[in-house]
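Reply to dn_fold:

You asked what the input looked like. This is it:
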Amino acid sequence: MFGNPMFARTILKLMIAYLIRRILYAIPILIGVNLLTFALFFVVNTPDDMARMQLGIKRVTPEAIEKWKQQRGYDKPLLLNSAASGAGKLTDTIFWQKSASMFVLDFGYSDDGRSIAREIAQRMGPSLAIALPTFLIGLVVYVSFALLMTLFRATALDIAGVALCVLLMSVSGLFYIIGGQFVVSKLWHLVPISGYDGGIGGFRFVVLPVVIGVIGSVGSSSRWYRTIFLEESGKDYVRTARAKGLSELRVLFSHVLKNAMIPILTGVVVVIPLLFMGSLLTESFFGIPGLGSYTIDAINAQDFSVVRAMVFLGSLLYIVGLILTDVSYTVVDPRVRLS
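and this is what came back:
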């Protein structure tokens, strides 16, 4: 059936139409996020408020505020410029130049004059170097551990595994970071305590953050996957497979794991923005020049241009993740219709 060219073309057309519909659904969401972000940064927190925070109490004067706003383009009207003519009534405004431009990935400049888009491009690599291995290794570890507990459910191994998960969940992620730096870096001197280097030499800088990132999420993720697998194990099709004489391992991997892919994919989509945005705590404590530390530095410096750009980029990546997840549903589960 799949070798039939007409059938293949029909499936391709359905997939393209399905993808277009999902993208069209996402556009209003992204517009809403952009409008909400604009309202928070320019209506609730006005440009005058930004200027006062940046200038400090001693240097706040009406002249200094106006100069600060002019230098950053915040002296224009918010939504409608009645003094301009033609299209300038809409384009010569803060909304058009600071918010609408982000739809074409024009993020403008930070308060220190650097191109935000260039900074994002440069810092995306270090963030991926930490987040991608953490995600892939973690997914294998979490699913494997959960399958092991499911295979030996209601036994001492299962009880010990659940207890370990609860124990790991009860410990703050900050403890793993500080403890790992102290033991592995300061006492054992196995890897640098912080810093980053590109290329092959950068492996020694990322190995500890990756290990800590995996360990820090073992408890919550493995227990969640275990719940999914146990729920699937109690369904009728699994009991039928066991009644036919299939081994428990084959039932677990051929039936339970396969049919649990949809909830697994749903959980994976939450991680997709973090692959690019980076981890705020990990990058800050390990001195990784990624997007996470970039965001933290912008918040500390009250650089609202960078913060706005990172909020919009995070929303965009999350929406892309949702679209990819919807499409992947149709691949892993034929019961999901292309509609």
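The mean pLDDT is 85.
Hope that clears it up.
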